[in-house]
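Here is a typical protein record:
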Amino acid sequence: MKLRPLFILLLFVASTATLCWIYYKVTHPRQKPEGETWHEVIADLDACCRRKHVKSMQYDRFAAIAEQESRRQIARLFRAMALSERLQENNCADAIHQLGGEYLPPEKILVFHGTTDGNLERSIAYELRMNEECKCGEIDRAIARDNRFAARLLTWSSSVDMRNAAFMHLCLLPEGTAGEWEYLVCPHCGNLFIAAYCEPYCPFCLTAGSQFVRFD
Protein backbone atom coordinates (compact mmCIF):
# COMPACT_ATOMS: atom_id res chain seq x y z
CA MET A 1 0.00 0.00 0.00
CA LYS A 2 2.87 2.35 0.74
CA LEU A 3 4.14 1.93 -2.84
CA ARG A 4 0.91 3.14 -4.42
CA PRO A 5 1.45 6.89 -3.74
CA LEU A 6 5.00 6.59 -5.12
CA PHE A 7 3.73 4.79 -8.21
CA ILE A 8 1.05 7.46 -8.76
CA LEU A 9 3.67 10.20 -8.33
CA LEU A 10 5.98 8.57 -10.88
CA LEU A 11 3.09 8.12 -13.29
CA PHE A 12 2.16 11.79 -12.87
CA VAL A 13 5.76 12.89 -13.51
CA ALA A 14 6.02 10.69 -16.61
CA SER A 15 2.71 11.97 -17.97
CA THR A 16 3.74 15.57 -17.36
CA ALA A 17 7.09 15.03 -19.08
CA THR A 18 5.36 13.41 -22.07
CA LEU A 19 2.92 16.30 -22.40
CA CYS A 20 5.76 18.81 -22.17
CA TRP A 21 7.68 16.96 -24.88
CA ILE A 22 4.63 16.90 -27.19
CA TYR A 23 4.03 20.61 -26.59
CA TYR A 24 7.66 21.41 -27.39
CA LYS A 25 7.57 19.42 -30.64
CA VAL A 26 4.38 21.14 -31.75
CA THR A 27 5.59 24.65 -30.97
CA HIS A 28 9.20 24.11 -32.13
CA PRO A 29 9.12 22.27 -35.48
CA ARG A 30 12.39 20.69 -36.58
CA GLN A 31 14.58 23.06 -38.51
CA LYS A 32 15.81 21.58 -41.75
CA PRO A 33 19.58 21.52 -42.19
CA GLU A 34 20.78 24.32 -44.46
CA GLY A 35 21.79 21.91 -47.19
CA GLU A 36 18.31 20.37 -47.15
CA THR A 37 16.61 23.76 -47.16
CA TRP A 38 18.48 24.85 -50.29
CA HIS A 39 18.46 21.44 -52.00
CA GLU A 40 16.39 22.54 -55.01
CA VAL A 41 18.22 25.85 -55.36
CA ILE A 42 21.62 24.13 -55.22
CA ALA A 43 20.49 21.62 -57.84
CA ASP A 44 19.36 24.43 -60.16
CA LEU A 45 22.61 26.34 -59.66
CA ASP A 46 24.58 23.16 -60.34
CA ALA A 47 22.67 22.56 -63.58
CA CYS A 48 23.36 26.15 -64.61
CA CYS A 49 27.06 25.75 -63.82
CA ARG A 50 27.29 22.65 -65.98
CA ARG A 51 25.56 24.32 -68.91
CA LYS A 52 27.89 27.30 -68.64
CA HIS A 53 30.97 25.10 -68.43
CA VAL A 54 30.03 23.15 -71.55
CA LYS A 55 29.16 26.29 -73.51
CA SER A 56 32.43 28.02 -72.57
CA MET A 57 34.35 25.04 -73.94
CA GLN A 58 32.21 24.97 -77.08
CA TYR A 59 32.61 28.69 -77.72
CA ASP A 60 36.38 28.51 -77.35
CA ARG A 61 36.43 25.74 -79.93
CA PHE A 62 34.04 27.61 -82.24
CA ALA A 63 36.26 30.71 -82.00
CA ALA A 64 39.28 28.68 -83.18
CA ILE A 65 37.26 27.33 -86.13
CA ALA A 66 36.10 30.83 -87.06
CA GLU A 67 39.70 32.06 -86.98
CA GLN A 68 40.70 29.25 -89.35
CA GLU A 69 37.91 30.34 -91.71
CA SER A 70 39.02 34.01 -91.47
CA ARG A 71 35.75 34.95 -89.78
CA ARG A 72 37.38 37.24 -87.26
CA GLN A 73 34.20 39.12 -86.35
CA ILE A 74 32.50 35.89 -85.33
CA ALA A 75 35.63 34.53 -83.64
CA ARG A 76 35.70 37.68 -81.53
CA LEU A 77 32.08 37.13 -80.47
CA PHE A 78 32.69 33.48 -79.59
CA ARG A 79 35.70 34.41 -77.43
CA ALA A 80 33.68 37.06 -75.63
CA MET A 81 30.82 34.63 -75.01
CA ALA A 82 33.24 31.98 -73.72
CA LEU A 83 34.51 34.42 -71.07
CA SER A 84 30.95 35.41 -70.21
CA GLU A 85 29.99 31.78 -69.65
CA ARG A 86 33.02 31.13 -67.44
CA LEU A 87 32.26 34.16 -65.27
CA GLN A 88 28.68 33.04 -64.77
CA GLU A 89 29.82 29.49 -64.02
CA ASN A 90 32.16 30.82 -61.32
CA ASN A 91 29.42 33.01 -59.82
CA CYS A 92 26.97 30.10 -59.57
CA ALA A 93 29.69 27.79 -58.20
CA ASP A 94 30.50 30.31 -55.47
CA ALA A 95 26.79 30.50 -54.59
CA ILE A 96 26.62 26.70 -54.32
CA HIS A 97 29.54 26.68 -51.88
CA GLN A 98 27.96 29.46 -49.81
CA LEU A 99 24.77 27.41 -49.56
CA GLY A 100 26.67 24.39 -48.28
CA GLY A 101 26.86 22.43 -51.54
CA GLU A 102 29.70 21.33 -53.79
CA TYR A 103 30.15 21.85 -57.51
CA LEU A 104 32.25 19.58 -59.70
CA PRO A 105 32.58 20.51 -63.40
CA PRO A 106 31.65 17.78 -65.89
CA GLU A 107 34.62 15.58 -66.72
CA LYS A 108 33.64 14.60 -70.26
CA ILE A 109 32.45 17.15 -72.81
CA LEU A 110 31.43 16.51 -76.40
CA VAL A 111 32.76 19.40 -78.50
CA PHE A 112 31.32 19.93 -81.98
CA HIS A 113 33.58 20.66 -84.94
CA GLY A 114 31.26 22.01 -87.64
CA THR A 115 31.58 25.05 -89.87
CA THR A 116 31.17 28.50 -88.37
CA ASP A 117 27.70 29.05 -89.82
CA GLY A 118 26.63 25.64 -88.57
CA ASN A 119 28.07 26.38 -85.13
CA LEU A 120 26.14 29.65 -84.98
CA GLU A 121 22.88 27.99 -85.94
CA ARG A 122 23.45 25.13 -83.48
CA SER A 123 24.24 27.54 -80.65
CA ILE A 124 21.21 29.74 -81.33
CA ALA A 125 18.91 26.71 -81.43
CA TYR A 126 20.36 25.47 -78.14
CA GLU A 127 19.84 28.80 -76.37
CA LEU A 128 16.23 29.07 -77.56
CA ARG A 129 15.47 25.46 -76.65
CA MET A 130 16.90 25.80 -73.14
CA ASN A 131 14.97 29.02 -72.59
CA GLU A 132 11.77 27.26 -73.67
CA GLU A 133 12.42 24.25 -71.43
CA CYS A 134 13.33 26.22 -68.32
CA LYS A 135 10.58 28.85 -68.63
CA CYS A 136 12.04 30.64 -65.60
CA GLY A 137 11.41 27.56 -63.42
CA GLU A 138 14.83 27.86 -61.79
CA ILE A 139 14.27 31.53 -61.00
CA ASP A 140 10.77 30.88 -59.64
CA ARG A 141 12.05 28.14 -57.32
CA ALA A 142 14.79 30.40 -55.94
CA ILE A 143 12.25 33.17 -55.29
CA ALA A 144 9.85 30.69 -53.67
CA ARG A 145 12.67 29.68 -51.31
CA ASP A 146 13.28 33.39 -50.59
CA ASN A 147 16.82 33.13 -51.98
CA ARG A 148 17.06 36.35 -53.93
CA PHE A 149 20.81 36.01 -54.37
CA ALA A 150 20.43 32.77 -56.33
CA ALA A 151 17.44 34.20 -58.21
CA ARG A 152 19.56 37.16 -59.29
CA LEU A 153 22.39 34.94 -60.58
CA LEU A 154 19.95 32.75 -62.50
CA THR A 155 18.24 35.83 -63.94
CA TRP A 156 21.59 37.17 -65.15
CA SER A 157 22.30 33.79 -66.73
CA SER A 158 19.00 33.63 -68.58
CA SER A 159 19.21 37.23 -69.78
CA VAL A 160 22.77 36.88 -71.06
CA ASP A 161 21.83 33.67 -72.90
CA MET A 162 19.15 35.55 -74.83
CA ARG A 163 21.51 38.43 -75.59
CA ASN A 164 24.11 35.97 -76.87
CA ALA A 165 21.52 34.33 -79.12
CA ALA A 166 20.61 37.75 -80.53
CA PHE A 167 24.27 38.64 -81.20
CA MET A 168 24.85 35.29 -82.94
CA HIS A 169 21.74 35.81 -85.06
CA LEU A 170 23.16 39.14 -86.28
CA CYS A 171 26.28 37.29 -87.42
CA LEU A 172 24.12 35.15 -89.73
CA LEU A 173 22.77 38.18 -91.56
CA PRO A 174 24.27 39.16 -94.94
CA GLU A 175 27.97 40.03 -94.85
CA GLY A 176 28.64 43.50 -93.50
CA THR A 177 25.32 43.88 -91.68
CA ALA A 178 26.86 43.25 -88.27
CA GLY A 179 29.85 45.48 -88.96
CA GLU A 180 33.28 45.10 -87.40
CA TRP A 181 32.02 45.24 -83.87
CA GLU A 182 34.13 45.00 -80.76
CA TYR A 183 32.67 43.36 -77.66
CA LEU A 184 32.85 44.12 -73.96
CA VAL A 185 32.19 41.72 -71.10
CA CYS A 186 31.29 42.75 -67.56
CA PRO A 187 33.85 41.01 -65.30
CA HIS A 188 31.36 40.67 -62.46
CA CYS A 189 28.18 39.20 -63.99
CA GLY A 190 29.32 38.25 -67.50
CA ASN A 191 26.94 40.60 -69.30
CA LEU A 192 27.96 41.10 -72.94
CA PHE A 193 27.92 44.40 -74.83
CA ILE A 194 28.68 45.72 -78.28
CA ALA A 195 31.38 48.30 -77.58
CA ALA A 196 29.88 50.95 -79.87
CA TYR A 197 26.60 50.84 -77.93
CA CYS A 198 27.99 50.24 -74.47
CA GLU A 199 26.44 51.89 -71.43
CA PRO A 200 28.60 53.65 -68.80
CA TYR A 201 27.83 50.87 -66.33
CA CYS A 202 26.41 47.35 -66.38
CA PRO A 203 22.62 47.49 -65.97
CA PHE A 204 22.70 44.08 -64.26
CA CYS A 205 25.26 44.58 -61.50
CA LEU A 206 26.18 48.31 -61.81
CA THR A 207 29.86 47.58 -62.47
CA ALA A 208 31.58 50.62 -64.01
CA GLY A 209 32.14 50.39 -67.77
CA SER A 210 35.82 51.20 -67.30
CA GLN A 211 36.27 47.70 -65.85
CA PHE A 212 34.77 45.83 -68.80
CA VAL A 213 36.97 43.35 -70.69
CA ARG A 214 37.36 44.31 -74.35
CA PHE A 215 37.53 41.89 -77.26
CA ASP A 216 38.82 43.59 -80.41
